[in-house]
Specification:
By secondary structure, the chain is α/β, with parallel strands linked by helices. The chain has one domain: NAD(P)-binding Rossmann-like Domain (Rossmann fold), CATH 3.40.50. The protein has eleven helices and twelve strands. A six-stranded parallel beta sheet has the order 2-1-3-4-5-10, sandwiched between helices. Strands 6-9 form a two-stranded parallel ribbon. A two-stranded parallel sheet has the order 7-12. The protein is globular.
Length: about 325
């Protein structure tokens, strides 16, 4: 799919009003997509966990490209509290949307998965071929397995029906407009909010979950949006593709960076009774470079600075 073709396609972006979705919509516009042909189904009108609502969406919007970003997701705590809901909602949305794409004759379906689909003890760096070599980390396994099941569905539909469905595996995302809710936020927005509140209230100590020894890889949301649009235009393969920065940092080091970016001068205490989650995460991103020339541009330090500034302006 060339840039010229993209310009004239009606494109549905599920979750297009959300954190990642807003950046994907803007990236599509920069690549020449006509704004009026970028269609964002809203939850108030289309409950994508329901087959009838998805069928109505396809009938009304008539897309030739679908980029499926919508998800129900949260950090470790939210995953522990909502394992059934997260499995059902993510499985149901993908199931109905992929079947609907087949019935509607959609040209291309882009499924955005999750790094949580990888087995708990995947060798670092994570390679796409290791995706099935074990069970995911238990704190977010229901969510990860639901998302991974959609890869199987897309590959099966490709073989039987010829549906051009691709599957991307982004690493942990962050950036301006992230979810800073106390109950559902991921680690970077959670730490930013915690340090800002501690600074404002004069607290002398902040308590963080786990040992701080687990590591993560982070990708700025703008970079992820570029990758998704590049893959939409240039990648048509059945194999999943990692999308990340290829850089790894421990949660302890991350907390210190965020503490500095916020300007908090107190101490950090680690609550080792709380889970660390997966021990390490870092992706092999060579497949993305090979197939659609993607490399991250925003450094972690620069991305954290932008995210803290955005939060302070809007909190």
């Amino acid at each position: 799919m060339s840039g010229t073709e993209l310009e004239y396609e009606p494109i549905v972006v599920t979750g297009g009003a959300g954190f990642l979705g807003r950046f994907v919509v803007e990236a599509l516009k920069r690549e020449g997509a006509v704004p009026e042909r970028i269609l964002v189904p809203r939850r108030s009108e289309f409950d994508l966990t329901r087959a009838d609502a998805v069928a109505r969406m396809y009938e009304q919007m008539r897309p030739t490209v679908v980029i499926h970003l919508a998800a129900e997701v949260g950090g470790i705590g939210a995953n522990q509290q909502n394992p059934g809901r997260y499995f059902y909602a993510n499985m149901a949305m993908g199931l109905h949307l992929i079947e609907g794409a087949r019935l509607a004759g959609v040209k291309k379906f882009v499924q955005v998965g999750t790094v949580c689909a990888y087995p708990r003890d995947t060798p670092v760096p994570f390679r796409e071929d290791d995706l099935w070599n074990g069970y995911p980390e238990e704190t977010n396994a229901p969510y990860g397995i639901a998302k991974k099941s959609l890869l199987v569905m897309l590959q099966a539909y490709r073989r039987q029906y010829g549906l051009n469905g691709i599957y991307l595996l982004p690493v942990n995302l962050y950036g301006p407009g992230d979810d800073f809710d106390r109950e559902t936020s991921h680690v970077i927005p959670a730490l930013i909010r915690r340090f800002v509140e501690a600074k404002d209230s004069g607290e002398r100590q902040v308590t963080c979950w786990g040992t701080g020894n687990a590591s993560r890889e982070f990708l700025h949301v703008e970079d992820c949006a570029r990758a998704i649009v590049a893959a939409t235009k240039r990648y048509d393969g059945a194999d999943p593709v990692n999308v990340g920065s290829g850089q790894e940092i421990t949660i302890r080091e991350l907390a210190e960076k965020i503490k500095s970016a916020v300007g908090y001068s107190g101490d950090i205490e680690w609550d080792t009774t709380k889970p660390d989650g997966q021990p390490r995460r870092r992706l092999d991103t060579s497949r993305a470079r090979e197939h659609f020339a993607f490399e991250a541009r925003v450094s972690l330090d620069e991305g954290l600075r932008r995210t803290v500034e955005s939060y302070l302006q809007n909190c």
